[in-house]
Amino acid sequence: MAGAVKTPRPLRLTVNGHTAMLDVPGETALLHVLRNDLALNGPKYGCGLGECGACAVLIDGRAVRSCVVPVEAVEDRTIVTIEGLAAEGLHPVQQAFVESQAAQCGYCLNGMIVAVTALLNRNRQPGEAEIRSALAHQLCRCGTHMEILAATRRAVELSASDVAVAEENCP
Ligand code: FES
Ligand code: FES
Fold this sequence. Notes:
Blueprint: E1 11-15, E2 18-22, H1 30-37, E3 56-59, E4 62-65, E5 78-80, H2 82-85, H3 92-99, H4 109-122, H5 128-135, H6 145-168
The protein binds FE2/S2 (inorganic) cluster (2 copies).
């Protein structure tokens, strides 16, 4: 980055359970560090202005637009990208999007899946209004919104059955 000032010390970033020490300017957008320094290309560059949601990641379980977050602001936070969701096989939200074939070009899906995961983190059984509210500012230029809503309803079902299985297996 031309004219950028390097931090006086490496920044410590914990992403998908791995900690990395990074010699990057602290004001660099988290999105660029994820993609350029950590080879995590799931989060996408859409608008670069915090408007479209394509770059979303989970920070401490909440959906955050990584194109407008300086990397120095998220040291010592727990960052999970869409790659981290699939660490032990497909996450129920990813499974729901596959089952529902909720994609055209797929460019928006990182943000959609991260937003739905964050929604389920705060409410395992969201109603229709809460689902629509969670996705209201996630843009899809292909007009796949109906399929994405269907996938989200399926994610709610899969997530509920995961909880039920976990409870059955409790000693
Ligand atoms: S690229 Fe981050 S919100 Fe659009
Ligand atoms: S599927 Fe193309 S932008 Fe959403």
